[in-house]
Amino acid sequence: MKKLLVLMLLFLVGGGYYIYKKEGKILPYYEQLTKNHVGIEVNLQDAAQKEAHFVGSAKCKKCHKDNYNEWSHSMHPKMIQDVKKDPSAIVANFLQLPKDANFKLKNIVYTIGGKFKQRYMLEKDFNGTKDYVVGNYQWNSQIHKWQHFDTWDYWYKNAYPHDDMKVPTSTTCDGCHFTGFMSKQKRVELGIACEVCHGPASEHVKNPKSAVYLASLVDPSRQNEVCLQCHMRNRDNRLKNQNMSSIYGDARDYPIGYEPGKSLAKLKMVAPFEMGHATGEFYANGAGKHNRTQGNEFVHSAMAKHGITCINCHNPHTLQPTAQHNTGNALCLKCHAFNSIIGPHEKSLEAHTHHKANSKGSLCVECHMPKVGRHAPGSPFTVRSHMFGFVTPAQTLKYGMPKKTNACYACHQDKTMKTLQNDLESWGMVGWDKR
Ligand code: HEC
Ligand code: HEC
Ligand code: HEC
Ligand code: HEC
Ligand code: HEC
Ligand code: HEC
Ligand code: HEC
Ligand code: HEC
Coil, strand, or helix at residue 74? Predict the structure, then answer.
């Protein structure tokens, strides 16, 4: 009898292990991946939040110390900084500011960003309302240079005067950089704070039983919306049935009215793209030429189609992984396993990558998240693709993409694209687009 029990136990453990190997490590995500779709137009916001207003992150600190600390060390709260409160927010060299700049150091009210580039908000009155404009030079932090910048030179250029002093940040930028502006048109807090993702929380602060939005509880096809409200290239929603001249002076580059839980699809129009046709924003395969295209790219990926979301990889409070804090292959191997159903289909790391295990050429992100975009003209390619596919050297040339955006070429610039394509073919690894 004992023997039989032991045998049965062994069988169970062994069988479990076999399934685990076969299915990869994706099983823990099974519930997420098989949730019923609720539809993209359904409003998921709790009734209590419909009446609530924004109160700011300081109010959350007392009860959610850990989340608060994690978030406060991330880049999100630092997007907009008050120069009066913290002059060190300015990363530019003002001794080199070109003579034709329309601002001086003393005119700056807020800095925007700084990791890749920094722009400057100047106060300006628009028909009696206090608003802001962006200075006509930006500091490129990657190449340490001032560069000319025009606020109007985007898809909405025919909706604004071609004069940087006449384009307000309220319509073109602030929805994505201040908390509260997207839905209530009020700059409640500088930068990206708690309520941007959890919704207005005045009721919850009074009574913690009153619900706030928690993206991880909803259908994965809706989960990304809290990130996509900002991390995506858009068009003004009204262009679905109006033309540019009818929104003159008011073209919005962000989904005005969005609050976590509301239907994002109803409030914005995604930047147009048709597979096979390059645009000013995208290469012919859908990869972004610039920054802020994570959402546009991710929707093309097999991972998004299978219900994987931004927060399966990124901690929403620390934001890691980032270029500075990356856990390497461990992140991908949370779900992927060698010789598993979701791949890689080879039996080991070296058999899949054809590089030594400890080589940079064996890092998943180097081949599957190649650096395809730039943050500003003249910047190096540092924006990593979120399509999670693989672009062969031959495809890079076919799509008319710069050679340096190819994963193999980025590390092997001493070789030709043809040689690298041959290497790949000799490994038997060019079947991607034929599957
Ligand atoms: C007085 C203490 C208190 C304050 C202030 C407070 N919370 Fe909470 N919060 C709680 C408690 C307690 C829970 C757990 C509630 C429960 O399980 O029903 C909670 C839960 C949450 C959750 C998880 C919700 C869920 O469905 O699991 C989020 C998100 C959240 N709070 C965000 C915030 C934000 C953002 C703020 C600031 C605007 C804030 N809280 C302020 C006490 C507080
Ligand atoms: C960029 C969006 C974003 C911001 C900003 C953000 N959160 Fe969250 N938060 C999320 C998401 C998404 C989850 C769900 C994570 C999960 O369940 O894996 C979450 C989970 C939580 C939870 C419940 C689970 C837990 O980790 O305890 C609390 C409480 C919370 N956040 C509070 C806050 C507070 C307080 C702030 C501001 C200091 C904040 N959040 C800022 C997106 C955000
Ligand atoms: C309200 C707009 C907004 C929302 C919502 C938002 N982000 Fe961001 N995010 C930004 C901006 C702006 C930056 C650049 C911050 C900076 O440079 O200071 C950024 C930066 C980041 C970074 C890079 C951090 C670094 O250290 O370089 C990551 C990763 C990121 N966001 C992930 C997310 C995820 C995941 C979500 C959803 C859970 C999300 N964001 C929601 C606007 C937003
Ligand atoms: C739809 C949302 C959205 C709008 C509108 C928007 N941004 Fe951003 N912006 C982001 C996000 C998200 C990031 C960070 C992600 C990335 O760069 O890939 C970012 C990054 C930046 C950065 C670089 C930050 C850094 O630390 O290097 C600057 C500067 C910036 N934006 C300025 C502007 C200005 C000026 C406008 C208006 C003319 C504007 N943005 C409009 C969402 C937006
Ligand atoms: C499968 C995992 C995965 C998913 C899903 C994912 N990311 Fe990322 N993301 C990464 C990794 C890894 C990096 C950092 C790569 C590096 O530079 O080392 C990154 C980088 C970024 C960055 C730039 C950070 C920097 O340091 O420049 C932003 C912004 C970002 N992701 C936003 C998003 C958003 C928004 C989504 C959802 C639409 C998303 N990511 C989905 C893995 C993922
Ligand atoms: C939360 C789970 C999860 C994580 C984490 C994850 N993946 Fe995936 N990945 C999936 C699923 C599910 C699929 C779809 C499998 C299929 O099509 O059979 C997939 C598919 C892929 C594919 C195939 C794409 C195609 O077009 O066929 C690649 C490449 C990939 N992932 C790379 C990565 C990389 C690189 C990372 C780390 C940065 C990563 N994955 C992290 C779950 C994950
Ligand atoms: C992140 C950098 C990186 C990427 C991406 C990369 N390699 Fe490598 N590669 C290396 C390094 C470093 C070596 C040195 C030997 C080793 O580590 O295995 C190497 C070695 C090689 C070798 C054998 C030695 C030689 O130079 O002839 C070939 C062939 C090769 N790579 C081809 C490729 C191809 C094809 C791709 C694209 C699928 C690629 N590599 C992607 C870094 C990279
Ligand atoms: C040297 C480049 C390189 C590296 C590094 C790399 N891959 Fe791949 N990967 C490829 C290529 C090329 C393909 C396409 C194979 C084909 O078309 O037959 C591929 C295919 C895949 C697929 C699709 C299923 C399959 O096996 O064809 C998955 C999943 C995947 N890789 C995951 C990963 C993960 C996870 C890592 C890190 C542990 C990783 N890859 C590292 C080049 C690489």
Answer: coil
Which comes out higher in pLDDT, residue 29 or 348? 348
Categorize the per-residue pLDDT at 203 as very low, low, confident or very high, splitting at 50, 70 and 90.
very high
**Best substitution site from 308, 352, 365, 433 to test ligand 8's pocket, by max atoms within 8 Å of Cβ?**
352
Residue 435 has pLDDT above 50, yes or no: no
Measured CA to CA, the distance from residue 123 to residue 121 in angstroms comes to 7
pLDDT tops 50 at residue 235: yes
d(CA 387, CA 171): 30
Beta carbons within 8 Å of 65's beta carbon, 6+ residues apart: none
Residue in the structure block whose two tokens are 């000013």: 280
The tokens 């990593």 sit on which residue? Answer: 384
DSSP tag of 124? E
Q: Whose CA is nearest to atom 43 of ligand 3?
A: 230
What is the maximum span of the chain, computed from C-alpha positions, in angstroms?
A: 91
Index of the ligand 3 atom closest to the CA of residue 227: 37
User: Which residue shows structure tokens 């650096």?
Assistant: 371
Which of 41, 61, 64, 59 lies closest to 214 in space, CA to CA?
64
